[in-house]
Predict the 3D structure of the following.
Amino acid sequence: MAVNLTKVDHGAPNWENTINDDFQALNQDTGVINLTMIGPLSGLYSDNKPSARRLNGEIHLNGGIKASEKITAGSKVISMPAQFIPRDGWIITACMCTNMRTMFAVSVRGDGIYIDSELGVNMELDFSSIVYPGQGA
């Protein structure tokens, strides 16, 4: 986690504002936000939607998806708000394909999650292991 803090000079005017800004930067938390699935998908666990949380500059994904139809490689499967953009604009990572018990490559970009390979019918992806630094972190 990287947070930009400002050094407080003893006796500086408005020092309390600087300290409050530093505390706010250290305690960033969006809470859990449900993400939008795109295409023939359902939530992996009890039909719950995948979710994300930004906590102290790190993005934590949770939940997953299950395909009810074949989805072609390069397709966007999750739409995400801008607060979950990766620090460098995008990342390539892997999640667990639970029913195949293999890793599956995905790309997290500025507007969502894209699959890097074809997703077959009934294939399940669990995003819960994905954690990455967000912009401004």
Q: What stands out?
A: The longest helix spans residues 15-26. The CA atoms of residues 82 and 110 lie 7 Å apart. The first strand starts at residue 33 and ends at 34. The helical segments are 15-26.
